[in-house]
Amino acid sequence: MKKVAIVGTQGVPASYGGFETLVENIIGDNCPSDIQYTIFCSSKDIPREPGAFYKGCILKYIPLHANGMQSIPYDIWSLCKSMRGYDCVLVLGTSGCSFLPVFRLFCHKRLVVNIDGLEFRRAKWGRVARWILRFSTTMAIRWADVIISDNKGIQDYVTETYHRESVLIAYGGDHVRREVSEEFQDKCLTGYGLQRGKYAITVCRIEPENNCHVTLEAFAQSGKKLVFIGNWKHSEYARNLRETYCKYPNIVLLNGIYNLDILYALRANAEMYIHGHSAGGTNPSLVEAMFFGRPIIAYDVVYNRETTRNEAYYFTDVESLKTLIARQDLCGDKMKQLAESVYTWKTISQQYCSLY
User: Fold this and answer.
1) DSSP state, 48?
2) What's the number of CA atoms in the CB half-sphere (13 Å) around residue 58?
3) Phi, psi (5° rounding) for residue 263?
4) CA distance linking residue 7 with residue 41, whole number of Å
5) Which residues contact 118 (CB under 8 A, 6 or more apart)?
6) Best exposed site among 18, 150, 269, 326 by fewest CB in 10 Å?
7) C-alpha separations of 128 from 120, 123, 134, 141, 168 in Å
8) What span, in angstroms and rounded, lies between the C-alpha atoms of 204 and 256?
9) What is the pLDDT of residues 210-219, one digit of tens each?
């Protein structure tokens, strides 16, 4: 029995982001019987599970928030707690990796780090935050036994910048498959004033690097129907966009939807999916969208091209996006085929277990 500690997420049950979804889906039925996971969770962000067990995993709680200003001490505290009693420590993200030189003085067990999507490149961070995040990434790459890159673009960066090899493991997306009745789907569409196959959809955090302003402006000019799901109260950028584009009758701005049946109904019946992310590696929302077999129009960066194997459609600005959404010959069949062959959680879980 291999004992593996997972550090760096808010915890499970998953209710936040990509890493939480990753953990949710590599445990349980997808986990081999010879792996015993312990997951470090934030008692400030998620409710404690009775008995501190979930899907066969042991849960241990840290009394700090997993994100924001407390993310670094949260990860460091978790690392300290994982120094004893485990065969391997899996670190997701690099927030606390500036601590790894100290961690290595006391713990020589196998250390596996998924460095995420080069967080220091994201536009939302200031100069000091970027320096800290870059330093943490450097420490992760220097001190880890195994480095995981979730995208070929990230893998190439690690090789070219640090002259180290990394293992390429992406994300799964087959958890979006659900048994949702046609009656329920029709009710959802009617509730939002939508018709099957007559709207585009996008789901993301409302941040400049996700090119939300480009997507909204293209649809505002084209007049085509768009459903845009995001955290519209999160920042000044988000609030300004909402104030500007909520006036357009063809644009439906929705706050985050956590009912998976409703989210399924909206994605399964869309004409196309718009993916504006320009940073990060393999974006979970893009992988999830691929399973619905709809045409995907993605921002033209190496990460998105690698995820979709150059089989999607790509835009760079408002005009190129307008041109693509006006086309009648777009097809998403290859996206679904690729997703089902590459991005299943059973495969991803096995790839992780092979590293322990």
Assistant:
1) P
2) 11
3) -60, -40
4) 8
5) 137, 154, 157, 279, 280, 281
6) 326
7) 10, 13, 10, 20, 29
8) 9
9) 999 999 999 9
Which residue(s) pair with 251 in the sheet?
226
- Kindly tell me if the per-residue pLDDT of 121 is higher than 80: no
| DSSP 8-state symbol, 154 | H
Q: What amino acid is encoded at 140 in this protein?
A: A
The C-alpha atoms of residue 146 and residue 140 are separated, in whole angstroms, by: 10
**Residue 174 contacts by C-beta under 8 Å, 6 or more apart in sequence?**
291, 339, 340, 343, 344, 345
Question: How many CB atoms are closer than 10 A to CB 20?
Answer: 23
Specify the pLDDT at position 258: 81
Measure Cα distances from 310 to 149, 304, 307, 341 in Å.
19, 8, 8, 16
Work out the angle at residue 285's Cα, subtended by the Cα atoms of residues 298 and 305, and round it to the nearest 5 degrees.
35
**Rounded CA separation 142/97 (Å):** 10
**Residue 71: closest CA among 38, 40, 47:** 40
What pLDDT digit, counting tens, does each position of 160-191 carry? 999 999 999 999 999 999 999 999 999 999 99
Q: Pull the structure tokens for residue 307.
A: 């995820």
The model scores a pTM over 0.70: yes
- Determine whether 105 is exposed, middle or buried from the number of CB atoms within 10 Å of its CB (0-12, 13-18, 19+): exposed
Rounded distance between C-alpha atoms, residue 143 and residue 108, angstroms: 11
Rounded CA Rg of the chain = 20
Quick: pLDDT tens for 275-319: 999 987 888 899 999 999 999 999 999 999 999 999 999 999 999
What distance in Å separates the CA atoms of residue 278 and residue 307, rounded to the nearest whole number?
13
Q: How many other CB atoms sit within 10 Å of the CB of residue 318?
A: 19
